[in-house]
Amino acid sequence: MATQHYHGSCQCGAVSFETDADLDNTVVCNCSRCKRLGSVLTFVPKDQFNLVSGEQNLSEYLFNKHKIHHLFCATCGIESFAYADAPDGTPMVAVNANCLDGVDARALSPQAYDGASR
Q1: Torsion 100-87-62-34 (CA) sign
Q2: Tens digit of pLDDT for each residue in 3-49?
Q3: How far apart are CA 1 and CA 21, in angstroms?
């Protein structure tokens, strides 16, 4: 699929963003949060992510080791993305492919990540 430019948003549209992502490398996680949300994640360097609107409408949720900043729309409750650092310290964004315009996340072939054991 290669890297492409995408626009995404929460359900109500209050939070919107643009990113360059490669959807050939998506992940599903079985941690207590991702499993319940059904997120299909793609990871992009923070400099390839642009929050277009809605920063003031974001609420944050931290759990477990408090290393991933789960951000969700305070109006509709959708988590479109989260901020965290990669193991090498690179600032990253975990983008929920379900929130990308024109993308059928269920048609992707994500790899399983065992977040429940970490």
Answers
A1: positive
A2: 999 999 999 999 999 999 999 999 999 988 889 999 999 999 999 99
A3: 10
Which tokens go with 87?
Answer: 């193991």
Write down the residue that tokens 């290393």 correspond to.
Answer: 67
∠ CA 22-96-56, nearest 5°, is 120
Pairwise CA distance, residues 41 & 116, whole Å:
16
The three-state secondary structure class of 115 is: helix
Structure token digits, residue 96? 């929920």
pTM, 2 dp:
0.93
The predicted model gives 46-58 an average pLDDT of 97
Q: Residue 90 pLDDT more than 80?
A: yes
